[in-house]
Amino acid sequence: MKASIEREDFSSRLQQSMRNAAYSPESPTQLAREFNVRFAGRPITVHAARKWLVGEAIPTQEKLRTLAYWLGVSAEWLRFGGAEMPAQAGNGDMTARFASDDVKLISDLQRLDAHYQMIAREIIRMLVHISRRG
Predict the structure, then answer these.
(1) Is the distance from CB of 34 to CB of 23 less than 8 angstroms?
(2) Does 109 map to a domain?
(3) What 8-state DSSP symbol labels residue 73?
(4) CB under 8 Å, gap of 24 or more: what pairs does 6-12 form?
């Protein structure tokens, strides 16, 4: 019985965090897509996302940290709750501001070897410099 209540409470906090970050807690497809572009491990299925949203399952600690970082809350609050929803220290809210395509691009950049990362960064710097002149 206690585990069921813990899953339901987690689900409520996840839904609240998604609404606060301007995402729909009604869409497990959106949750799975947004989560997967931010998570370096094996992607989750829409079914797994639905289970999180309806209180049938709680993600692993690694997945919980990714969710919390993306949604700009602390992993501890998301998992266990507390009196209020504290903001995560650091840049948690920065990731939430990026579109999915931007996060995917950053993820792709991180997968390149050091030489190609340097080239990609230089190209971006040149484009920014050119756009500021115009």
Answers:
(1) yes
(2) no
(3) B
(4) 6/58, 7/55, 7/56, 7/57, 7/58, 8/55, 9/55, 9/81, 10/52, 10/55, 10/58, 10/78, 10/79, 11/52, 11/53, 11/54, 11/55, 12/55
Evaluate whether residue 76 is within a structural domain: yes
Other CB atoms within 10 A of residue 88 CB:
20
Residue 106 domain-assigned (yes or no): no
CB of 42 closer than 8 Å to CB of 78: no
Number of folded domains that form the chain: 1
pTM tops 0.85, yes or no: no
CB 78 within 8 A of CB 14: yes
What is the CATH classification number for the domain harbouring 65? 1.10.260
Is 37 a member of any domain? yes
pLDDT tens digit sequence for 26-80: 999 999 999 999 998 999 999 999 999 999 999 999 999 999 999 999 999 999 9
Domain hosting residue 72, numbered range: 2-97
